[in-house]
Write a structure and sequence with these properties.
single chain; mainly beta; globular
Length: 341
């Protein structure tokens, strides 16, 4: 009897160890539901961007000082610890506005950001530059520029959609265009409409969903309105939308009064973007959120997502910060329909 109990205990211990290894080392901290502070911004347009590399490195950019100090930080352990933020090399000594990060299918990272026409904040119009990294964000290629309209203000805030190896779909404030990375040429996308500064995502079925509340199943040639779509059109630069590997779509909502609201949640679609009837709240500090949060979400693995956001309330512990929160996908799966989780 005693021997059987010992054997049973050993088997149970091994099962627990196996399960922990399968879920990954950071799930325990994720279950605590506490954001990890990754940076201490000074103020201004902080607006983080985030991506996960093919090697599993998390890369985040954010504005430390308004328009003058764009920083980059990396995590090699799923967001538990982060490197000291360093200046992004191509914006040192130049004015900028934060942009986006995308991991391409070949493993390279695409960082797109906004510049002014001069090195002062007053010069307009803004235009978009991009740079590539082949070493998980350690070094970056010389900047390349998207076409520039001297009469319009061009801004990017959301990841691109990689239509093919060298055709990239950009959703900008003044244009929705396909850029050919080989030729450097760009052209209007699909039916030529400008979706505005909203996210565009492509589902595993090839469906395109626009943050303007539109859905296309024919490569952007035609679009249909989505009933009950989250309000991403209003200040779409601070909201986000991502598509998970299983096809679910998550769109951020910032709820409550004031500039930054009081809580952050996902609206969820489980049917290729047709309907949005699930909600999962992931940040509610019990007070107004300082700043606009500008959450950015990445899928970490089959069991977890991670979201980066900022909160500049000076009264919180540690003062203003950029934070990373790991969320088990089981919580998204259990999220209620028609109301908060």
């Amino acid at each position: 009897m005693l021997r059987a109990m010992i054997v049973g205990s050993v088997l149970l211990l091994r099962a627990v160890e196996f399960t922990s290894a399968w879920l990954g080392p950071s799930v325990a901290s994720a279950d605590e539901g506490r954001p990890v502070r990754i940076a201490d911004p000074v103020g201004g347009h902080i607006h983080p961007a985030a991506c996960l590399t093919a090697k599993g490195t998390l890369v985040v950019t954010y504005g430390r000082v308004n328009h003058r100090d764009l920083r980059i930080t990396r995590s090699l352990d799923g967001g538990a610890t982060w490197t000291d933020p360093v200046p992004f090399e191509h914006t040192v000594g130049k004015s900028y506005y934060p942009g986006s990060l995308t991991t391409l299918s070949d493993g390279r990272l695409l960082h797109a950001w906004n510049r002014w026409s001069e090195d002062t904040n007053e010069q307009e119009p803004r235009s978009v530059l991009y740079s590539l990294s082949s070493d998980d964000g350690l070094t970056w290629s010389p900047p390349a520029a998207l076409p520039r309209n001297p009469k319009l203000l061009s801004v990017i805030r959301h990841p691109i959609v990689e239509l093919s190896a060298n055709l990239w779909l950009f959703s900008l404030s003044d244009a929705t265009l396909v850029h050919d990375a080989t030729t450097g040429q760009s052209k209007p996308f699909g039916d030529g409409r400008v979706h505005g500064l909203v996210p565009l995502v492509q589902t595993p079925r090839g469906t395109l969903v626009s943050g303007a509340g539109l859905r296309s199943t024919d490569g952007g040639a035609t679009w249909t309105a989505i009933d009950g779509f989250p309000n991403l059109k209003e200040q779409g630069w601070r909201h986000e939308m991502v598509c998970l590997d299983n096809g679910w779509l998550l769109a951020s909502e910032i709820l409550g009064p004031g500039v930054g609201g009081e809580r952050l949640r996902y609206a969820i679609s489980r049917d290729d973007g047709r309907t949005w009837d699930g909600y999962y709240e992931y940040y509610n500090p019990g007070r107004p959120i300082g700043g606009r949060a500008c959450p950015r979400t990445v899928q970490l693995d089959a069991q977890n997502i991670g979201v980066v956001f900022y909160d500049v309330d000076s009264k919180q512990e540690g003062g203003p910060g950029v934070f990373f929160l790991r969320i088990p996908l089981a919580r998204i799966a259990a999220a209620g329909r028609g109301g908060d989780s």
